[in-house]
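Box 4.2: Ligand-aware structure prediction
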Amino acid sequence: QAVADKIAAGEVAERPSAVVKELVENAIDAGADRIQVEIRKGGVEYIRVADNGCGIPAGQVETAFLRHATSKLSQIDDLYRISTMGFRGEALASICAVAEVEVITKTPEEEEGVYLRLKHGISEEKSEIACGTGTSMMVENLFANVPARMKFLKKDSTEAGYVADVLGRIALSRPKIAFSYTCDGKEIFTTTGDGKLASVILKIYGLDHAKALLPVDYTESGIHISGVVGKPELARGNRTRQTLFVNGRYVKNHVIAKVVEEAFRNNMMVGKFPFFVISVDLPAELVDVNVHPAKTEVKFANEKQLYDIAYHAVRNAIGAGEK
Ligand code: ADP
Ligand code: MG
């Protein structure tokens, strides 16, 4: 049985922000250090993700759009040692099935780049093109051929907000990559790629590290907890400013959010939720990122231990801030 068949396939291209997420993760996997994202009309009309990564070899451009044509996964074992963001080989196939896609790509070894246009999964035009190294993916008229999906989308400004949210979190997870996000011709944010989490937080949330944030940095039993928590006065009535990464991947884990909140219990009003951007780095065997097809839910092997360590990490940060 093929490895790909063992992977539970989920719907990838659920809404514009999901498409952006997949395209940006591909750009990260390609080693890019500059990623530009542009959308129009909530991403339904137009999405463009341009990177300066390794490019796709001319002979492989069409195969990249076939299901399970991933170049990143060879054995089922690899699933538990994933270092790349994508590993199912279905993002491009799913996206191009429900949109018109154009790609311009070039590897450093090639003189000329490739231009390919596909509509609803079928390749319509291919030619050589002069371009720099890297890849640009343009996705137009998303879901035009799936009216049911179209109906389920929210208004453009809401969808654009989801894109900003997804991209902001990816930018927080990759301070060494310079991201830019433009929506309907307006620049929403750019990050510098200087490698500092504080710089990204300043660009995305406008929060000054020295004034507003407490650094978290704690290691126990091979589990490293790092990042920042906001001072109690930054707390809000909702959890939209809470971000968790596990081994570099944005995930949701309500228990960890609760643990951080618990660490703030005596410093914060009831009903207020702390700001945080926290990374948990731990041996791959202790985490299963494959529980959910959208890859945002995680399960841990030794949950109790991890939660204790996270609690200590945040208590230390708060304690240091009080001194
Ligand atoms: P996966 O990321 O799971 O491998 P995708 O469908 O997202 O599957 O992408 C298919 C393949 O296309 C990737 O494995 C990669 O080889 C290639 N690819 C896609 N996007 C890029 C990019 N921006 N730069 C270089 N290669 C890319
Ligand atoms: Mg991918």
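In the box above, the bound molecule is adenosine-5'-diphosphate. Residues 22, 25-26, 86, 91 surround magnesium ion (ligand 2) (CB under 6 Å).
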